[in-house]
Each structure stands twice: as structure tokens, then as C-alpha cells.
Write a structure and sequence with these properties.
It contains 14 helices and nine strands. It is an alpha+beta fold. It comes from Mesocestoides corti (Flatworm).
Length: 349
Amino acid sequence: RFFLLRVDVADCFNNIDHTLLLEVFRKTVKTAMDFSTMPFCPELLISELSSFLSCYIIKLGGQYFMQTKGIPQGACVSVDLANLYLARSDQSGPAKAYFWRSKRKAATHAGRLDATILRFHDDYLCIATSKERLLLVRNALFDGLHKFGLRSNASKETSNIEESDDPIAVDWLGLEITPNLDFLLPTVICGPRTFDRFSGYPLSWRDCLWRLSRYLRSYDYFPLVINQLGAAVNCSVAEVNARRLGQHTARLVIFYVWPCPERHACLASVRRVRRLAEILLYRLAALFDRHSLVLLSRDSLVQCLHQRRSEFRLLLRFLCDPSLILRSGKLPPSKTNLLQKFMDAPGNN
């Protein structure tokens, strides 16, 4: 097993040191000149950044203040500047040997790499083969952050160091990572609706379906998690992800359909509900190769929506009997073949 630690930088944007940032930017621009095919003036870029940092005025309580530390979060370049700053911290700190590089297969000081660090923006994930090594990596990472005026947000640190009968998964970037380095989709609870994403902005039924379809198509990490290395042989991980994907899809249906003022009439329309069921089943079928996982994901979707069966009665009928969609005869062959998975799967009625 592996030991994991998630680290989040506390108030990252507001703690960036201007002097250090300008120094990092100056070195980056110098390096960029050696590779750029487009001529530019490095001094002009540095001067512009200096003006950007020193002339940011904040109005608070009727008074004006000049920001002398940190960068504004709303600026279009702020994320890139923060990444440059953190990258320099990674490369110059005591933990630099642990940061993951795709071309490095083993540590230079040992025959085998026993720890590594991954970073996405200001979220770090430390991985080690022992508790002792993980604590060493953690301390080295913190020392590097402190040199750049940054610190960890202790309230957001999560780890699986503590002994437990049930292995603890660590949340990172919207995924659960197990001690075996398996990826799990996050747990979704389809309880009472507690917020409305489009409150005060009613959407037509067509817009709701368009947004839902676009969201399902653009969710990049679904294929990564579903087809991760070892998922074919690790049935338990694949089944957990199939169930959670069904739960997530159900939450999205509620999330996008509920703000529609036409939903009561549309959810009673055979034609419109058939279209919604087609979108949902098509996306599920496209993600799984195994029939058992296709059915497991669909059944999880149905189970979650069944809690609101008074609203989704007609939709549940189409989801449970995909032949009602196929009988329309208006689907392209590619979609028909995918939806046929629900008909060909063993045990499907």
C-alpha cells in the first residue's frame, strides 16, 4: 500500500511576494527568449508586470489602499503567475527531488523511487511507500513553501497515515485516491435539493438538455477513471466507479432539469423524455466496454432518480426499457449500436 497526503496552500494568491515573483518572472522571460520564434522586449514585459503589481488599488470602507503583497485573483494572468511562483518553489526547495517528472523512472540517488509529489495549481499530493518517508517529504515540502512566504492550510490536509480497518481514500482534484493508487469517482448523495445553480435565470427545456449533454461530453476525467490501468482486472474498483457514475449522472439530471419552468410539462412528454433518456444512456454506454458495468451504472442512475419517481416516472420507464428508444428508428447506427448494449447485456429484460 501507499501512504498519501493532500496539501493545500493557504491563501496562495494573497501571500505571493512581489520581489520574489519579479525575480522568478525575469528568469522565466530570459529562458523564453532562447526558445521563442517571435521577438519581444523582455524589459517591457518585466516593467508591465512591475506596474501591475505596484499599482493595484483596493477600496475598503471608503478608503483606498495599495496592495503591497499578493496578486489579484480576478486578473487573467494571476493563475499563470501563481503557477510560475509555485514552480520555482518546487524546483529550488528541499523537496525538488521528489517532484514527479514524466521522463524520470527512478530516483537518481537510489535504485527505486519510494516517494513523489504531484501538484496542480496550489493543490499538492504526496505519495510514499512508508509513513516515515511521507513525513520527510511533507517537511521538505513545507520548508520550500516557507522560503517563498507560503504555508499549508492545516484544515484542508487529509492523509491515510492513521491505521484503520477500512483503508482511507484521499480526495484530490475531485477524485478519491485509494492506498492502492486506484481512482474512484467522488461519492454523490442525491438528497433534497439545497441550491439552484441558475436561480433567477430560467432555462428552456432545450437549453437544459444542451447544457446537460455538453457537460457529460466534456467531463474529461470520466474516461481516465473508468479506463485506468488495472481496472479490467480489479472488478471492485470498476464496479464502485460504475455505481458512482450513475449517481453522478442522476445528480446532473436534477441539477440541470429543475430550473426549467417547463419541466412538469416536458417530463410528461414522451418525445422530450425519450430524448433525455437517449442522452443519458448513450453517454453511459460510451464509457463502458463491459456489459455488466453498463447495467450497473444505469441501475444506480435509476435508483437515485427513483427517490423522485413522482417527477421522473416516464423517464424511469425509458431508462429501464431502452427498447422504447430504439423503436423510434430515428437514431444513427453509431448510437443504435451503443444503446444495444443495454439490450444485449446478460440478465437484461
